[in-house]
Here is the input.
Amino acid sequence: MTKAEVCSEIARTLGMEKGAVLDVVEKFMEVVKDSLAHGENVYLRGFGSFIVKTRAEKTARNISKNTAIRIPAHKIPAFKPANTFKEEVAKG
Here is the structure.
């Protein structure tokens, strides 16, 4: 399902204009991105958490040049679904 399809479904269900729903969805994504960029996790009870994970430094191999390269520690965004979310998906 794409962002446009999500917005259309919400607009249809709530009887709202698609443009207004799209603005809300865009702003939601912006707030989540900004929060994670500043190191703040976003918790949505019953849905899940958008969190920042830290990957440790590691050494990798460049196979084509047969050399070792160092990948520095870095942060990545992640989503951890709530238990109720997981249970609902498991039901199918």
